[in-house]
Amino acid sequence: MNHNHIPQWNLSYWINSQPLEISSLQGKPTLVHFFQMFCPSCVLHSLPTLQHLWNERDKLDLQVIAIHSVFEHHAQMAPDALSVFIQEFRYTFPIAIDVHNGSDPVPGTMRQWSIQGTPSSVLLDADGMEVWRHFGRLDLGTYEDVIRSNGRAPVMGGGPLCPVMGDRS
Fold first, then answer.
1. Buried b vs exposed e over 73-83: b needs ≥16 C-beta within 10 Å?
2. Considering 52, 66, 108, 156, which has the largest number of Cβ atoms within 10 A of its Cβ?
3. Looking at domain 4-163, which CATH architecture does it have?
């Protein structure tokens, strides 16, 4: 288990929420999920699972936030396209766009948080400390086990991934 403070995020264009700061999340565990709308595993598995967790957030005593972290096909995944995508699939959880820093194709928060690709999830405890992270697809039951155990449940990953291409970090 990591128990690390996470870096601040640099996010823009919030959907389904006013802009949120990491400091405002303390008090409840928070699941932060990194995705791309061109990532098949994100579209078919992770985002529907995230919507279910959002719908059950009061029972799970959980906050849920998704970060659209585009590291390829930037022109096709602009904010307008993301808005249409979110409306089409009727996602209601808070979603923000990860901001790019200069010429780096990997957006800032994704790089600062050392996210390997999409889908990726990070669980923060009620104090805002990272207690768990996973790169890859998970089923709903595994997410619920991890959340209820505050990141202590064992996880076996699986499914197709969208690794960051050309990452030199």
1. eeeebeeeebe
2. 66
3. 3-Layer(aba) Sandwich (3.40)
